[in-house]
Design goal:
By secondary structure, the chain is an alpha+beta fold. The chain contains 5 helices and 12 strands. The protein has a 6-stranded antiparallel β-barrel. The protein has a 6-stranded antiparallel β-barrel with strand order 6-7-8-11-10-9. A hairpin with a 4-residue loop joins strand 1 (110-120) and strand 2 (125-130). It is elongated and about 125 Å long. It starts with a helix and ends with a helix. The mean pLDDT is 80.
Length: 281
């Protein structure tokens, strides 16, 4: 009974609105059921107007819907970008590993594959740290190579890591030769992106583009390991020797994996040569 009274009060309070709604409903019923020509025309115009209005409204974008779609697309873009990067990295790693595996199968030496875990390339004494050490058979003075050429040599070891002196190190030296003409020299580095082939006289046969490899006269490095190629030759007036620039075959900034050549160092020979070259005062 109380609810009915409240309902009656609401109807009395809003009677004008109820009457308006009722009249609109009756009008729509009359318009829909009347077959008069004028009513049909009004009905047609009304439908057309409503259609045009709906089309216009549909052009106006829903800001909240667009924002939500934008967030979804951004997240999808990030996910796809991450997936592309991982696939690209996997492809590059696969190429490197295939090249290293091919080299290991062809090599006449025992090789220990390892990753570079530390790198210093902005010094005069550039070095790398690898994740192989004495427990892997690595010892001081063992050569370091990659599938593209000579990298350097081991200068310090622990059980599971080693520090290696790079070809781009002012203290590095290696006996080398021109592969084509068999001309011998000494490889050293004094800065920059190239190394120098020293002790080659002006009369000796060296040309730009010649491949430079390690020679048989090294007590540390096996012969015929590629060092790089001759990229520039300068003959200084009054100097007996040529200035020969050699571009290394190894791209040191992008280097990630290397091999240690497990060789028996001829300690007796090295000691004898050091005594002759650097006699004690």
């Amino acid at each position: 009974m109380l609810k009915m009274q409240k309902l009656i009060q609401i109807i009395i309070l809003f009677k004008e609105y109820f009457v308006l709604v009722l009249l609109v409903i009756v009008s729509l019923i009359l318009l829909g059921s009347n077959d008069n020509t004028q009513v049909k025309a009004i009905r047609s115009y009304t439908v057309a107007f409503v259609g045009i209005f709906q089309d216009a409204i549909s052009i106006v974008p829903n800001v909240f819907e667009l924002k939500r779609d934008n967030e979804i697309l951004r997240q999808l873009s990030v996910n796809l970008s991450d997936e592309v990067n991982r696939l690209r990295e996997a492809r590059l790693e696969n190429i490197r590993l295939r090249a290293m595996l091919n080299m290991k199968e062809r090599s006449e030496f025992k090789l220990v594959a390892c990753d570079i875990v530390g790198k210093n390339l902005h010094l005069l004494r550039n070095t790398i740290t690898i994740n192989a050490g004495e427990s892997d058979g690595v010892k001081i003075d063992m050569p370091i190579i990659s599938e593209t050429g000579l990298v350097g040599k081991v200068i310090a070891t622990s059980n599971h890591h080693s520090v290696c002196q790079l070809l781009l190190n002012k203290d590095f030296r290696a006996s080398a030769k021109i592969q084509r003409s068999r001309i011998d020299g000494i490889i050293s580095w004094s800065g920059g992106e190239t190394v120098q082939l020293k002790n080659v006289t002006k009369t000796q046969d060296v040309k730009e583009g010649d491949i430079v490899t390690t020679s048989e006269y090294s007590g540390i490095f096996p012969p015929n390991i590629k060092i790089g190629f001759v990229s520039k030759i300068v003959e200084v007036q009054g100097n007996l020797f040529k200035d020969i620039c050699v571009t290394p075959g190894v791209d040191f900034p992008s280097l990630e994996q290397v091999f240690v050549i497990i060789t028996a160092i001829d300690a007796e020979r090295i000691e004898l040569e050091q005594k002759i070259l650097h006699p004690k005062k």
